[in-house]
Design goal:
alpha/beta, Rossmann fold, 2 domains, 8-stranded mixed β-sheet, 7-stranded mixed β-sheet, 15 helices, ATP binding
Length: 399
């Protein structure tokens, strides 16, 4: 496959993607490469993101690398030797060095994100060359094509620290888990963090409704039901409705079929790669999709009203969650039955106590007036959520 590209006098080539004839012929390599639905490649109307620097004179290898960049939704810069302009070497998020030119890259400045790429599985010299140019890894095509697509897409997205992912579940029905989830998302957005609120309960009333964003354009869970493999975090974020600085993934108004766990895994993994904060509102009765969401949590919050039957119900919920949640803690909500307080309830559940969520008699009236729960930072819920993130987002720890 001969990729169409433009070449300057200095040996620099800017990739222009495969020609129509080349696309008709299909990929050069026999290995299967994830398509746009898996890798999150840019659609026809979406701008391609800045991609890696490719350094190679092997046109066959170059064609394969251009195809992988297209699958990842990025546009690379191509050089046939180490670029003379230092920034062209140091600035790209990733550098892919072909094994055909690696020996001539020994004098280039060491930089993170350098990968040596080739096809010869039996050449022991490639490992020595990798050390000499400071490569972080050696990838052999076609076997490592899937790995390389993910590496290219991650570099283009600027993947760093993953999002702090917090799940909220009620100890019983009507405990206020959805209300707390909305309050936490709004409070995180107020701090300037990228925030995604995920509605994990298909039988709930819809978090988009609770936030007042049910009329906002954007994708809902049914649109992702067929997702599997890798989704691009940026494309996911831009496709969702935005309400008060929070991206919201909720359910449509029509009855929805159960989500495959693979779809939940793909969506939450993409959301986590973007960094910031992800808040997931979980159902008490977990199906396979909710069980998958639980495995991606950094912290679970169990909301428990202050009366004995709620404590008994919450104990059963906690037992069901304990196998999947790495860190499960209690949020106790007043008012309390006689003789109970937040510490007694947390001790009875054998869970660490995050804190007491004060009773807020005005929250229903606020919602009737179009004010989402937690939107007022000076209210009881807003103060609780702000204090939670102050602790959770501090260096060293969640809550």
């Amino acid at each position: 496959m001969e990729a169409s590209r433009t070449t300057g006098a200095d040996g620099t080539a800017r990739a222009a993607g495969p020609s129509g004839a080349d696309r008709a012929r299909g990929p050069r390599s026999s290995a299967k490469v994830p398509g746009p639905a898996v890798s999150g490649a840019a659609g026809p109307d979406e701008p391609r993101r800045t991609g890696p620097l490719i350094v190679t004179e092997d046109l066959g290898l170059l064609d394969d690398l251009l195809r992988l960049c297209a699958a990842a939704g990025v546009e690379p810069e191509v050089h046939h030797r180490v670029p003379e302009r230092r920034a062209s070497w140091t600035d790209p998020p990733l550098v892919l060095v072909g094994d055909d030119v690696a020996a001539r890259c020994r004098g280039a400045a060491r930089r993170p994100g350098t990968v040596l790429v080739g096809r010869d599985r039996d050449d022991p010299a490639v490992w020595r060359l990798a050390v000499e140019i400071g490569a972080e890894s050696v990838l052999r095509l076609p076997d490592a094509e899937g790995v390389l697509v993910d590496r290219i897409a991650d570099a283009a997205e600027g993947v760093g620290r993953q999002a702090l992912t917090v799940g909220v579940v009620g100890g019983r029905g009507g405990a206020g888990a959805s209300t707390l989830a909305c309050g936490l998302a709004l409070a995180a957005a107020r701090t300037g963090h990228r925030t995604l609120l995920v509605d994990g309960d298909p039988l709930g009333g819809g978090l988009d409704v609770l936030l007042g964003g049910e009329r906002e354009d954007g994708r809902r869970w049914p649109d992702f039901a067929a997702s599997k493999g890798r989704l691009a975090g940026g494309a996911l974020e831009e496709s969702l409705p935005s309400v008060r600085g929070v991206r919201v993934l909720s359910w449509g108004r029509e009855p929805a079929a159960p989500l495959p766990p693979e779809a939940v895994r793909s969506v939450l993994a993409a959301a986590r790669r973007r960094g910031g904060v992800v808040v997931v509102d979980l159902p008490r009765a977990a199906d396979a999709a909710a069980a998958e969401a639980v495995t991606q949590l950094d912290l679970g919050l169990l909301v428990v009203p202050g009366e004995l039957r709620s404590v008994a119900a919450a104990h059963r919920v906690a037992s069901a969650l304990s196998a999947g949640v790495r860190d499960l803690r209690a949020v106790v909500r007043g008012p309390y039955a006689a003789g109970l307080d937040e510490r007694w309830i947390a001790d009875a559940l054998r869970l660490p106590l995050v804190g007491e969520l004060p009773y807020d008699p005005g929250i229903v009236a606020d919602q009737d007036a179009g004010m989402p729960p937690g939107a007022e930072p000076r209210g009881p819920l807003g103060r609780f959520c702000d204090a939670f993130w102050t602790r959770a987002l501090a260096p060293g720890g969640a809550a």
